[in-house]
Amino acid sequence: MDKFRNKYRITSTRLQNWDYGSNGAYYITMVTAQREHFFGEIVQGEMQLSEIGKIAEKNWVAIPDHFSFIELGNWVVMPNHIHGILIINKLESPTVKVAETSVAPVETPKLGVSTEISTTANASKKWKPNTIGSIINQFKRICTIQARKIDFVFAWQERFYDHIVRDSADFERIQNYISDNPSNWKEDKFQ
After folding, report:
1. Do 46 and 152 form a contact (C-beta atoms < 8 A)?
2. Beta strands at 81-88 and 24-31: parallel, antiparallel or unpaired
3. Poorest-pLDDT segment among 40-44, 94-98, 154-158, 163-167
4. What is the pTM of this model?
5. Mean of the pLDDT values across residues 157-172?
């Protein structure tokens, strides 16, 4: 394991040298801590959302309201995880040159909650703005704040899974997987 500031840290699972703020489709999976069924249950192949599940659904659907360059692909809230496709579609202005940058490893803070007051200076130290990492961090943060009003032990696993969608066949396969996830719950690895 690598050390950062003399502390051990888990190596990032993010694709090195990829700008996670660049246009493309990203398949995301976020899991609750200890895979607790905070979001509801599957009944006869259909997801029945709990109050916390409704919070997660409402905040997922609202992502494009907060990030105008985001489009949602298929998504599903499952008993203990969320699958979704986020599509970044930033329109490039011909008068603005986008600088190439190297991306630092993106990690979700412990329990998926930012404990610091978010300021521009503070946020720039942790998250590159308008990237998948910053979007997921804000989604997890607001869900946690709202969910803990219902159940104070609600928490996320520290990280999230991402997959950069490579082509239309990959996109179609993932869309189908997400759509079929509730009916395939008995075989789900997150169960």
Report:
1. no
2. antiparallel
3. 94-98
4. 0.75
5. 91
Q: What distance in Å separates the CA atoms of residue 173 and residue 180, rounded to the nearest whole number?
A: 11
Mean pLDDT of the 139-164 span: 94
Structure tokens at 59: 């905040």
- Looking at residue 171, its amino acid is F
**CA distances, 98 to each of 19, 46, 120, 122, 164 (Å):** 12, 44, 20, 23, 21
d(CA 85, CA 87): 6
Contact 164, 131 (CB under 8 A): no
Supply the Cα-derived Rg of the chain in whole angstroms: 17
Separation of alpha carbons 140 and 156, rounded Å: 8
* Domains of the chain, each with CATH number or no CATH: 11-92+99-174 (3.30.70.1290)
- Residue tagged 């899974």 (tokens): 161
10-47 burial, b at 16+ Cβ within 10 Å, e below that, comes to eeeebeeeebbbeebbbbbbbbbeeeebbbbebeeeeb
The confidence score (pLDDT) of residue 6 equals: 64
Structure tokens at 27: 């398949």
Q: Which residues have C-beta within 8 Å of that of residue 109, sequence separation ≥ 6?
A: 115, 126, 137, 158
Minimum mean pLDDT among 41-45, 49-53, 99-103, 125-129: which range?
99-103
Whether 51 shows a pLDDT value over 70: the answer reads: yes
